[in-house]
Amino acid sequence: MKRKILLTGASGNIGSFCTKNWVEAGGYDLVLTDVRPPQESYGLPFHRLNLSDFAAVRPLCEGVDTVVHLGADPSMQATWESLLPNNVIATYNVFEAAHQARCRRVVFASSINAVLGYPSEVQVHIDQPIRPINLYGATKVWGEGVASSYSASTPLSCLCLRFGWVVDRDSAAINQDVQFLDMTSTYHDIAQFITKAIEAPDGLKYGVFHGISNNRYKRLDIHHFAPIARLRATRRRF
User: Fold this and answer.
1) pTM for the full predicted model
2) Residues 53 and 78 sit within 8 Å (Cβ to Cβ)
3) Any idea what DSSP says for residue 169?
4) 80 Cβ partners below 8 Å, 6+ apart?
5) Please, which of 18, 50, 110, 193 could form a disulfide with 140 given CB 3.0 to 4.6 Å?
6) How far apart are CA 193 and CA 119, in angstroms?
7) Helices H, strands E: what count in the chain?
8) Helix (H) or strand (E) run with residue 138 in it
9) Domains defined along the chain, listed by start
10) pLDDT average per 10 residues of sequence, the chain (238 residues)
């Protein structure tokens, strides 16, 4: 029986890539949601709604195995007026709706922005304190905290994936000495990363994992993937 996956932020770049990837693999029963329709829905059920509306979110979680929560304002320059409904209230709503519906797991899209305050020459490890430098990063810290709270107080499994700068693997940007290569991940790696998080053992109740490719120098340490099947071994090296 296929897992039923609710994908928030399905119309964004990562959501669209994951949808295509999973449809081609045929592994999941997908339900999509976002504030705008995706360019391609592949005939999948799509619900246009704002995640800050709990009454709209709650029914979507019924019968769902895993919620992949990508929906957010992704801008590092986002204002509080946007971040409050889209990143703070929406994240609480997703976790609470998943809990009430007795979902197995929420996979939360966090960000390197949660720890971007460290100097560029410092490789950040999972056990180091959070250090955001913008309100967007602070909302991702909030999401990791919400995930920890729900994993500790409910049966819900909550996994947080810190994404870096996500680009297409054939982009010219990743074949040059660019400023952000040390925090780069490809869409293919991110899709694999999320898939591994969905399929991680049920007993994995909580974790924060770094989602960048196996670049020669990495701002985020990725030697901690054992609980989700060591993605590091299969990632492309730039």
Assistant:
1) 0.90
2) no
3) T
4) 135
5) 110
6) 26
7) 6, 9
8) helix 135-153
9) 3-234 (3.40.50.720)
10) 96 96 94 96 96 98 98 96 98 98 98 90 86 97 98 98 82 57 83 95 94 73 60 38
Start-to-end C-alpha separation, the chain: 37
Output Rg (C-alpha) for the chain, integer angstroms. Answer: 17
What gap in Å lies between CA 80 and CA 157, rounded to an integer?
29
8 Å CB contact between 146 and 92: yes
Backbone torsion region of residue 18, taken as left when φ is above 0, otherwise alpha when ψ lies between -120 and 50, otherwise beta: alpha
Identify the helix (H) or strand (E) that includes residue 185.
Answer: strand 184-186
- Burial of 83-120, coded b for 16+ CB within 10 Å and e otherwise, reads bbebbbbbbbbbbbbbbebebbbbbbbbbbbbbbeeee
**39 is written with which tokens?**
């360019």
Residue type at position 35 = V
Q: Please answer whether residues 11 and 38 qualify as being in contact, where contact means their C-beta atoms are separated by less than 8 angstroms.
A: yes
98 token code pair: 């998943």
For 157, residues 6+ apart whose C-beta sits below 8 A from its C-beta are 104, 105, 106, 151, 200, 202, 204, 205, 206
